[in-house]
Amino acid sequence: MPKAETRGLADTLKVLSDPNRLMILELLMQGVQCNCELGDKLGLPMNLISHHLKVLREAGLVDAERDPVDARWVYYSINTRLLARLRDELYAFLDPERIVPRLPTCGPRIASVEALRALRA
Predict the structure, then answer these.
(1) Which residues fall within 8 angstroms of residue 76, CB to CB, at 6 or more apart?
(2) What is the mean pLDDT of residues 78-98?
(3) What pTM was estimated for this model as a whole?
(4) From 36's CA, which of 66, 87, 105, 109 has a CA 20 to 30 Å away?
């Protein structure tokens, strides 16, 4: 995985490392919600819900849409394209098939092997 992609994945994982943001995402997986619904379900104040939604939106994980009748109301939903990409990146990064068998090239074990080779030569 290239360094830039690793950095992007790490940044997204930092956003998701907050338990409140994970709970917000869990609720949004159940469908579109407004911040008052999220606050009621999580027992968190509106300013904290708004903060977490802002972080999730800046990371691209959450979309927001204003109500066409009353623009004071904002409805939040999961950005499904980014969620699918994140799932694929995590799967690729954590795929056990990527593990390459190898022996270390330093340490006491290597020094012992090299000493044995020198004695045999």
Answers:
(1) 28, 32, 33, 34, 35, 38, 53, 62, 63, 64
(2) 94
(3) 0.80
(4) 87
> What are residue 120's phi and psi, to 5 degrees?
-75, -20
Listed in order, strand segments (DSSP E) in 1-121 are 33-34, 62-66, 74-78
Q: How far apart are CA 24 and CA 56, in angstroms?
A: 9
* pLDDT tens-place string over residues 29-60: 999 999 999 999 999 999 999 999 999 999 99
Are 19 and 110 in contact, with CB atoms under 8 Å apart? no
CATH architecture of 3-120: Orthogonal Bundle (1.10)
What's the chain's Rg over C-alpha atoms?
Answer: 24
User: pLDDT per residue over 89-120, tens digit each?
Assistant: 999 999 999 998 887 777 777 667 677 677 77
| Interatomic CA distance for residues 13 and 103, integer angstroms | 30
| Alpha carbon distance 37, 51 (integer Å) | 15
Instruction: Take residue 43 and report the two structure tokens written for it.
Output: 């027992």
List, in order, residues 6 or more apart from 20 with CB less than 8 Å away.
42, 44, 48, 52
